[in-house]
C-alpha cells in the first residue's frame, strides 16, 4: 500500500494501544471506587473524580457505565487492593500498592522484580510505619540496578 499508509497505520496503532491501556486502568479504578462507595457519583467523591479523569482521557461514556455496572453485579469478581512491603538495596524501604483480581498472579509479578533489585519482602506493616506517601512512580520491568544508579554523585 505504500510507505505513507504504513506510517499512518503505525501511528494509529500506537495511539490505540495507549488508549486501551489508559481505559483499562481507569475502568479498573472506577470499578473499585463503585464497589467501595456505591454507584452514584453524587454521593461517592472518589468515583466522581475518576469519572472526571475518564472524561479528560476521552473515555467513552458507555465504557464508564459498563465499569460501574460491573461493580454493581453480584456475580462479578471484585478487585482487592493489596499492599506489599519489603526492603531493597541498601535497606531502602519499598511499598508496592496493587489492585488485583488474582492475588497469586500479582504476588508472582511483584516477586519477579526482586532478584534484579536484591529486594527481600517483609511482613505486613513492617516498613509502612516510617513512610509517608509523597511520590507515585512507575518502573520499567526487569531493569538492572547498579551501584552507579543508586549513588548520590
Textual characterization of the structure:
It is built from six helices and three strands. The protein is mainly alpha-helical and 153 residues long. The protein has helices at residues 3-37, 45-56, 61-72, 103-112, 114-117, 147-150, and strands at 80-87, 93-100, 120-121. The termini are far apart. Strands 2-1-3 form a three-stranded antiparallel sheet.
Can I get a quick summary?
The protein has 153 residues and is mainly α. It has 6 helices and 3 strands.
SSE layout:
Elements: H1 3-37, H2 45-56, H3 61-72, E1 80-87, E2 93-100, H4 103-112, H5 114-117, E3 120-121, H6 147-150
Mean pLDDT rating: 80
Class by SSE composition: mainly alpha
First and last CA, distance: 52 Å
Helix fraction? 40-55%
Beta-strand percentage range: 5-15%
Amino acid at each position: 500500500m505504500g510507505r505513507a499508509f504504513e506510517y499512518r497505520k503505525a501511528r494509529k496503532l500506537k495511539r490505540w494501544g495507549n488508549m486501551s491501556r489508559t481505559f483499562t486502568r481507569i475502568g479498573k479504578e472506577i470499578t473499585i471506587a463503585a464497589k467501595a462507595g456505591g454507584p452514584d457519583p453524587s454521593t461517592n467523591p472518589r468515583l466522581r473524580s475518576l469519572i472526571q479523569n475518564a472524561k479528560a482521557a476521552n473515555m467513552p461514556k458507555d465504557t464508564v457505565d459498563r465499569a460501574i455496572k460491573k461493580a454493581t453485579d453480584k456475580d462479578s469478581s471484585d478487585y482487592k487492593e493489596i499492599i506489599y512491603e519489603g526492603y531493597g538495596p541498601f535497606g531502602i524501604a519499598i511499598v508496592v500498592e496493587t489492585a488485583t483480581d488474582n492475588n497469586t498472579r500479582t504476588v508472582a509479578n511483584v516477586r519477579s522484580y526482586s532478584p534484579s533489585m536484591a529486594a527481600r519482602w517483609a511482613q505486613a506493616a513492617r516498613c509502612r510505619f516510617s513512610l509517608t506517601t509523597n511520590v507515585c512512580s512507575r518502573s520499567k520491568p526487569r531493569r538492572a540496578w547498579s551501584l552507579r544508579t543508586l549513588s548520590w554523585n
